[in-house]
Amino acid sequence: MTLAGRSLVTIDDLNNGEILGLFSLADAMAADLGAQYGLCRGKVMASLFFEPSTRTRLSFEAAMHRLGGSVITASDVGASSLAKGESIADTARIVGSYADIIVIRHPWEGAARVVADYAGIPVINAGDGGHQHPTQTLCDLYTLFKERNAIKGLKIALWGDLKYGRTTHSLIFALARFGADILFCPSPGLEVPQHVVDKLITEYGGEVEHPAASPQSDAESVFPVDAIYTTPSSPHQLAMMPDISLQLELREGVDALYVTRPQKERFSATEKDGAGKAGYPVVDKKLLRGRAFRETLVMHPLPRVDELAYDVDADPRSMYFKQAARGVPVRMALLALLLGVKDAAIPRVDSPAPPDYPVYRHDITPVCPNASCVSAQATERKYLRPEFKIVKTQPLTLRCVYCEHGFEPKYVASTDWHEGKLDTKKYHDADSHWARTIRPENLICFNTEAEAQQHGFKPSHYTGGHH
Ligand code: CP
């Protein structure tokens, strides 16, 4: 099957079979990296890194060079016309006319989606703010398959900054799709965002449980677990256990400990003073002596700061340098597939299809409340209309198609109520029974009454304070 012309913006863009097909090609390429030269002769990769990077940028560029292609690069917003106020869409159109494929890293969440919408060529997201980092996830999954042969039924603990760690967000969805149980072990204050948890629950059929505080002392408990995701087919049923049994189960071990650094560049002012500092968990030789980690793979997307001690580097359980090295064949395979110079043999495997949610796309639209979302930026708002998936009707919940943050609009109206007559343009509370009668294609949402009134709508009898 060909993946030619496709983009990889989130990990949802590849199903499980396609990921396994890509890994087979990566295996073949890893077996003889030198033999791949010439596959991409005449092709140009644009490498746009508007945030710092060592591994992702250099492994993509090495991958393209090893395939015999060329690389053009922009690595500093200040040295590109983005600094003059050019929009991402215009940059994408221009670079799309110079190159055959774009690899982009950008601090705004959803920026890679905009580039993919406007470039006219395949686009690979190399990390967009705190949203996702799907090619790091491919390196992580590839390492798990290489070391453990399968992912279904593995217990994987995610450790550290689960709030802003974009690698953990794309990894969580991929692990859930491949049937792993996931233990969330965040540094206090840096828990997995609610919109990621919501997506896990609504789209993967498993359960997210918050275990009760351990009756054991901290010293006796294996490690702090904030929440657990168990797949529907989980043999462990971890979440169903009383907390004491959970600790016993954990003592039996986890298959991988995925460590992340505090992403301080995304911290709010209060987080800089608090969450990032207090009790950030450290993985070191002493911790790994514990029985629970006897056969645990220690993974990290890197770079590390203080959360992963250098004294575990020589330990055979440490995988992070292998993860980074495997980035070259994995990214070679990805480039070759998206550029259509190779086809993949896609195995038939179960892969839950993403639900087909109705889309909210209207001239009147709330602004995405995530300040880091590309759709909320001044340069992009001139042309980018916010767009949302309607992921729940009770309570009404919209998910931004760019950054995937979810929110519950407070007020609604319907296009078929007023028929253009101003005096019947009314808005209702989003939780009123009228709101539930609005068909998705007629739905208009507002975050505030001021927004509704600005568009000429008046409060109905079903609006708080106007009954
Ligand atoms: N893992 C990762 O994204 O590393 P870089 O930031 O060095 O690319």
Structural class: alpha/beta
Low-confidence stretches: none
Please state roughly what percent of the residues sit in beta strands, choosing from under 5%, 5-15%, 15-25%, 25-35%, 35-45% or over 45%: 15-25%
Number of strands: 18
Bound molecules: phosphoric acid mono(formamide)ester
How are the strands of the biggest sheet laid out side by side? 7-8-6-5-9-10
Polypeptide structure, described:
- There is one protein chain.
- The protein is α/β, with parallel strands linked by helices and 467 residues long.
- The chain is 29% helix and 17% strand.
- It has 15 helices and 18 strands.
- It has helices at residues 16-31, 55-66, 88-96, 111-119, 134-148, 166-178, 194-204, 243-251, 269-273, 285-288, 320-325, 327-338, 378-381, 415-418, 449-454, and strands spanning 44-49, 70-74, 101-106, 123-128, 155-160, 181-186, 207-209, 227-230, 256-259, 297-299, 359-360, 388-393, 396-400, 406-407, 411-414, 426-429, 443-446, 458-459.
- The strands form four sheets. Strands 7-8-6-5-9-10 form a six-stranded mixed sheet, with helices on one face. The protein has a four-stranded parallel sheet with strand order 2-1-3-4, with helices on both faces. Strands 11-12-13-14 form a four-stranded antiparallel sheet, with helices on one face.
- Helix 6 (166-178) links the parallel strand 5 and strand 6 (181-186).
- Helix 3 packs across helix 4 (111-119).
- The protein is globular, with a radius of gyration of 23 Å.
- It starts with 15 loop residues before the first helix and ends in an 8-residue tail after the last strand.
- The structure holds phosphoric acid mono(formamide)ester.
- Phosphoric acid mono(formamide)ester binds next to helix 2.
